[in-house]
Structure formats: C-alpha cells, structure tokens
Amino acid sequence: MTAENVDVVVIGLGPGGEALATRLGKAGLSVVGVDARLVGGECPYYACIPTKMMVRAADALAEARRASQLAGSAQIQPDWAPVVARVRDEATADWNDQAAIDRLEAVGVRFVRGFGKITDTDEVTVATSDGDKVFRTRKGIVLNPGTDPAIPPIDGLADTPLWTNREAVPATAVPSSLIVLGGGPVGCEFAQVFSRFGAKVTIVQSPDRLLAGDEPESSELLRQVFERENIRVVTGVRATKVDYDGAFHVSAGNEVLSADQLLVATGRTRDLAALGVKAVGIPDDGKFITVDDRMRAADKVWAIGDIAGTGAFTHMSMYHADIAAADILGEDGPRAQYHAVPHATFTDPEVASVGLTQAEAEQQGVKVRTALTKLPESSRGFIHKLGNDGLIKLVEDADRGVLVGASVVGPGAGEILGALVVAVHAQVPTTTLKGMILAYPTFHRAIGAALAEL
Ligand SMILES: Cc1cc2nc3c(=O)[nH]c(=O)nc-3n(C[C@H](O)[C@H](O)[C@H](O)COP(=O)(O)OP(=O)(O)OC[C@H]3O[C@@H](n4cnc5c(N)ncnc54)[C@H](O)[C@@H]3O)c2cc1C
Ligand SMILES: NC(=O)c1ccc[n+]([C@@H]2O[C@H](COP(=O)([O-])OP(=O)(O)OC[C@H]3O[C@@H](n4cnc5c(N)ncnc54)[C@H](O)[C@@H]3O)[C@@H](O)[C@H]2O)c1
C-alpha cells in the first residue's frame, strides 16, 4: 500500500491532541489527526463537561433543600429531564463531533476517523471503515490515546449490563438504587449526583477511604457528608462476585449488596500493544508511556495526556500539548515540571489539592510542618452555615520555608485553591504569604488562619 507523506500524525484527539494538532496546523505543518471515537476525547462527551453539568444540577437541588432552613419554604421535585437535555444538547451535541472536526479542518488539519497504530519507525497505519490508510511522518508521531474505563476481573461482572462513565453520562433515567464500585473522583462525583436525584447509593471502595490519593482529612470529611446525605460508604472491601438477575447482587466482604444498577468506577486502562508502540522501542506491557520533560517518548515520538502517567486531568493533557508542540516546532519552550499539579473533585463540598500530600512529602524526606483549619470556624463558614463543611490543610517544607502542598475542602474549593497553586508553583516564602491581606469575609481568608498555625 502506498504511504502518504505528512509532517505529523496525532493518534488520539483528546483535549491535548486536539489542541496540539490545532497549533501545528496553524503553524503551517501538514498534520493528520486520527481518532477512533470522538474528536475531543473523553472530557467533552463522557467526562468533565457533562458530569459537571450533572453536578451543577445536583448542587442546585441541595441548595434548594437548604433554603427551607435559611430562607423559607421551597418545594423541590427533582427532575432528571433538564439534565438529560443539557448533556445531550449543550455538552455533547448528541455525541456528535462535527463542530470539532470543522475547527480542525479550518486550520488545515486533516481528520481521519479510525484506529491508529504505529507500524514502523515514522509510520502510522489507520484502520478506517474504508480500509487501511498509511502515513509516513517527516517530523514525528504524537500519542494522545487517553484511557478506557477499566473493568476489574470480578467473577460474574463482565457479562452484566453494568455502567461505566460512558453509560452513566447518557443515562436517561435515575436508577432507584445504585452500587458504585470505586470511590475515586469518578465514583464520588456520580454517587452524589444520583443520590441527590433520588437513587439509594452505596459506594464500595477497596482502599480504607474515599479519594485515596487526597489527604486523609479530606477523605474523612467527605465520608461524613456522604453518610449524612444517606450515601452508604463501604471501605476496605473488595467486591468478589457479581450476580445479575434483573438487579445486581454484589458480594463484598461479609454481605451481598443489591441494587438496580451498578456503576464501575475503578480506574482506567489503555492497551499499549494495540497502539504498536513496540515498533518504536517503547515497552507495551505497562500502564503508561515514560516521557521526558519535553514529552518525548522515543526518537520523533511524543506522548501526552493520561497516558504519560503524570495525572489524569484535562489541564494536564493541555499542559503537555503546549510543551510537545513547542518541541516539534523547534521552539525553546518551557520544560514540564510537576511540583504544583492541582486537581479538584467536584463533590459538594469540593475536594481540591495541589502539590504533595503530607504523606508524599514525608516519603520524599521533606521535613514537614502542617497546619489545618476548619471552614465552619471561619467567619464566612459561620455565615454560610448549611453546606459549610470544609477545611484547609497546608504542607510546608520547614527547612525551605515554602509550601509544597495544600488541600482545600469546601464550597468552591477548586476556586479557593487558586491562591495556593500560586504559592506552591512559585515557591513563595511562607513568611511572605503570612503578610497577605485577605478579603473579609471570604472562604479564602481561611488560608490566613491556616498559615498562622504553621
Ligand atoms: C467521569 C470522568 C470525569 C472527569 N472529570 C474531570 C474533570 O472534572 N477535570 C479534569 O481535569 N479531568 C477530568 N477527567 C479526566 C479527563 O477526562 C482526562 O484526563 C482527559 O480527557 C484527558 O485525556 P487525554 O487527553 O489523555 O485523552 P482522552 O480524553 O481519553 O482522549 C483520547 C482519545 O484518543 C482516542 N484513541 C485512543 N486510542 C486511539 C487509537 N489507537 N487510534 C485512534 N484514536 C484513539 C480515543 O477515542 C479518544 O477520543 C474525568 C474523567 C472521567 C472518566
Ligand atoms: N474532577 C476531576 O479532576 C476528575 C474527575 C473524575 C476523574 N478524574 C480522573 O480520572 C481518573 C479515573 O478516575 P477513577 O475514579 O475511575 O479512578 P481512581 O483510580 O482514581 O479511583 C478508583 C478507586 O477504585 C478503587 N478500586 C479499584 N478496584 C476496585 C474494586 N474491585 N472494588 C472496589 N474499589 C476498587 C481503587 O483502589 C481506587 O481507589 C483519575 O485518575 C482521575 O484523576 C478526574
């Protein structure tokens, strides 16, 4: 088969791949963007955007329920139909990516729908509905394949009509009861959404706490809020068997949990062998592709996004895209650094953090000093009253006198975190931070209270 010569092929057009292809196209390179599914990847169609629309709706219900104690009587009749309509019409255009394809083509990028595989050094073969297309690349190949939901090998699970995020996002009805397998960000966000819309929800999480990558204090606070909202949280237990007879029956620990629906949110996976990475010397038996600080994975091969293993977030994929694009264009761009990576889980309260947790800092041999303040004890927390659950925890490198990590739980925690991202990123001395004037009465003013404890 004759190969077409192009400058760059981008395999997988997640948020990073789409941004990178756009930038290279604008710079005048001949770029082929390949995606087997939808241009934009998981985030706009099955993840960040539609789930945060669901969260927005669920939060509106929670605030309306709080009104009766703060502002008078409010009649609430949850209705999933507006959520279904927003997700279908506003977030995903009914899971149609034509607008994204048009945007790419407008900057000269050629889009090919199909499954891309590296078949030789500098060569990509795309399996399309019209047969294979082969491209030879002058400048290189960028891998942005993202991840699929991982389905754990639990006896009886595989053949059931389980949900992952890809079925939960387009769901047109709220199940009356739901078991959520996995208490990470995906599991926690969906659990609270469906619970607030009326489902009886149980989370089964194998580690001993929710959001196991966050601070233990954040996990514990979220568990308290969830239990207060009648979400059952079962931790330290692994599901061993699933039976389906029209309802799901999950054996976990000493009990069998039953529910109408099962949502599997136990992490993500990608088959590297199917991507053909071995052809360019990249091991294909791991979970991630190792990259350097310019996102280089092999000679003339770059890997960006979740697959690089530096944090599975849209902002990370976009960050990688900028760095790899600059390298491909021969620009002297910044190198990747990861000492101040932020993330927010959009539960209510939100759980957000940047940099190292206390445990991570201690593992790295940092002489750690920590401080913790509770938001209900702040003026703004006192005023806010219902829904004021929250905390701010700071992790300081006591020798250097700078913050190396911070966590915020609370209303708008992802926004409050912004100030702490600046502090950790720029390594602002703690003494300088202590001199800041923080507006009264804001939630972020509690950062000052935490700093005073250091
Ligand atoms: C439910 C949920 C909620 C989330 N919420 C947030 C959030 O609020 N904030 C946040 O920052 N992150 C969130 N994330 C994570 C976020 O979705 C990902 O980190 C983000 O999509 C970046 O992924 P990526 O760029 O690596 O690729 P992806 O978005 O996974 O896209 C990869 C693309 O590559 C394609 N592809 C793969 N292999 C091939 C191949 N061989 N050939 C052709 N095409 C291929 C796929 O079809 C896909 O379109 C969430 C994730 C989930 C599951
Ligand atoms: N707001 C956000 O930024 C956001 C939201 C959702 C997802 N994400 C990203 O997407 C990725 C995937 O999220 P996720 O929540 O699916 O994965 P995760 O790996 O973060 O959490 C899954 C949890 O399920 C547990 N688990 C695994 N197998 C289990 C089993 N058999 N039974 C019970 N528990 C089990 C894991 O130990 C883990 O604690 C994450 O890396 C996250 O960064 C980000």
Determine the number of helices (DSSP H or I, runs of at least 4 residues).
14
CATH top level label of the largest domain: Alpha Beta
Q: What is the arithmetic mean of pLDDT?
A: 98
CATH level-two architecture of the largest domain: 3-Layer(bba) Sandwich
Give the end-to-end Cα distance, rounded to a whole number of Å.
67 Å
Helix fraction bin: 25-40%
Provide the domain count. 3
Low-confidence stretches: none
> Shape, please?
globular
Rounded Rg? 23 Å
The CATH superfamily of the largest domain is known as FAD/NAD(P)-binding domain
Biggest sheet: strands, sense, closure? Answer: 8 strands, mixed
Organism: Kibdelosporangium persicum
Cofactor: FAD
Family: Belongs to the class-I pyridine nucleotide-disulfide oxidoreductase family.
InterPro entries: FAD/NAD-bd_sf (IPR036188), FAD/NAD-binding_dom (IPR023753), FAD/NAD-linked_Rdtase_dimer_sf (IPR016156), Pyr_nuc-diS_OxRdtase (IPR001100), Pyr_nucl-diS_OxRdtase_dimer (IPR004099)
Protein topology:
Elements: E1 4-11, H1 15-26, E2 31-35, H2 42-46, H3 48-70, H4 81-91, H5 98-106, E3 110-113, E4 115-120, E5 123-128, E6 131-143, E7 148-149, H6 165-168, E8 177-181, H7 185-196, E9 200-205, H8 216-228, E10 232-235, E11 239-244, E12 248-252, E13 255-259, E14 261-264, E15 268-269, E16 296-298, E17 301-303, H9 314-328, E18 342-345, E19 350-355, H10 358-363, E20 368-374, H11 379-384, E21 391-397, E22 402-410, H12 413-426, H13 430-434, H14 446-452
Parallel strand pairs: 1-2, 1-6, 2-3, 6-17, 8-9, 8-14, 9-10
Antiparallel strand pairs: 4-5, 5-6, 7-15, 11-12, 12-13, 16-17, 18-19, 19-22, 20-21, 21-22
Helix pairs in contact: 1-9, 3-4, 3-7
Bound molecules: flavin-adenine dinucleotide and nicotinamide-adenine-dinucleotide.
Pfam families: Pyr_redox_2 (PF07992), Pyr_redox_dim (PF02852)
Cofactor: FAD
Domain Pyridine nucleotide-disulphide oxidoreductase dimerisation: 341-448
